[in-house]
Amino acid sequence: MMDSLPQVFTQDNLPTQVRVYEVSARDGLQAESITLPAKVRAQLISRLASTGLTSIEAGSFVSPKAVPQMADTRSVLDELDLGTGISYPVLTPNRRGLEDAMAAGAQDIAVFVSVTESFSRANLGDSLEVTTARNLDVAAAAAEAGMRVRGYLSMVFGDPWEGPVDPQRVVTASARLLDAGCSSISLGDTIGTATPGHVSAVLTALIAAGIPVETIALHTHNTYGQALANVFAALQLGVNEFDAAAGGVGGCPFAGSATGNLATEDLLWMLDGLGISTGVDIRAVAETSQWLGQQLGKPLASATSAAIVNQ
Ligand code: HMG
Ligand code: MG
After folding, report:
1. Nearest to 153 by CA among 145, 141, 143, 136
2. Ligand 1 centroid to 64 CA: how many Å?
3. Which tens digits make up the pLDDT trace of 209-233?
């Protein structure tokens, strides 16, 4: 019987340490047909916190009509032990979201903009320019208040309505987010169409334009099964933060072709095998995913989780 850890074979020129940014409680649950109560979402986050994860997205302060699954994120934060060194970022699309997040004690927020016109309208209800300006304003206000701000970019590797996306759009948007006070940029492959060469090309354009690689994270959806290969391409260019969701839950309610995020356990199996340190216990994550699957009443997408649990 195989152990639940892979054999380690290191490779030169890869980061030795990587941050896994856990999004199951936000990106994962926002796309599930079942809405889990705030208490259960808080339980999920607490379980994830005990696996060694240190960045765990806790929810969104968005319209509950638009995303009912994230309603009552304030109650989720109320249940958590804030200020313990683990960050629990929340999404804030506008000033109201930021004020509510601050009132709930959030210390980390994420703004989110699209690099395409169509998804700006589908996801945020207005034009690219208006929604970008709104999010830059929120980012600046939060940074001014001493909060840590992440900037998400959606549709970085293609858009279901508009098709290919010019990497220069990603460069421009990244620079604007960093200028506004974001400390990191998460490149969203919202519909999961990216392939490793595409990831390398976009990262190369960003790095050539002077965007520091240590500010870049990769946010993958595994729609076409490319997420892990894309992570490997990004590792080779020095990216050291990757978004993932326990069990591979998730998607995006405003982009029907998006499926779940890369599963955290699948990411960890590869990183552990490469000898890249994350501080996260893969078995504990797999157990949490099984628990989450029970809450959602369905088997989850993660291949690694199924393999570990069936051992
Ligand atoms: P809008 O309709 O343009 O704005 O929405 P509005 O100001 O007219 O507000 C509409 C309603 O929302 C009003 O309520 C507001 O009070 C309420 P009503 O009068 O109809 O009862 N509202 C709010 N309620 C609570 N908190 C708020 C808030 N703001 C307004 N902060 C808005 C614009 C962006 C607010 C809305 O469309 C919305 O909340 N959309 C949800 C967006 C979202 O959460 N998308 C999913 C996350 S992004 C994602 O998944 C991509 C990512 O994973 C990366 C990737 O994969 O690419 C990050
Ligand atoms: Mg996403």
Report:
1. 136
2. 8
3. 999 999 999 999 999 999 999 999 9
Average pLDDT in the 43-51 region? Answer: 98
CA of 81 to the centre of ligand 2 (A): 25
Residue 9 belongs to some domain of the structure: no
Which range of residues forms the domain containing residue 136?
19-309
Residue positions annotated with a catalytic role: 252
CB-based pocket (< 6 A), ligand 1? 27, 30, 60-63, 65-67, 91, 93-94, 96-97, 112, 123-126, 152, 154, 188, 190, 219, 252, 254
**Residue 2 domain flag:** no
Q: What is the pTM of this model?
A: 0.97
How many structural domains is the chain composed of? 1
In angstroms, the CA 6 to CA 274 distance is 9
Residue 8 lies in a domain: no
The CATH number of residue 51's host domain is 3.20.20.70
Chain segment 177-200, per-residue pLDDT in tens: 999 999 999 999 999 999 999 999
Counting atoms of ligand 1 from 1, which one is nearest the CA of 131? 34
Cβ neighbours, 10 Å, residue 311 = 10
Which strand (E) or helix (H) includes residue 114? Answer: strand 108-114
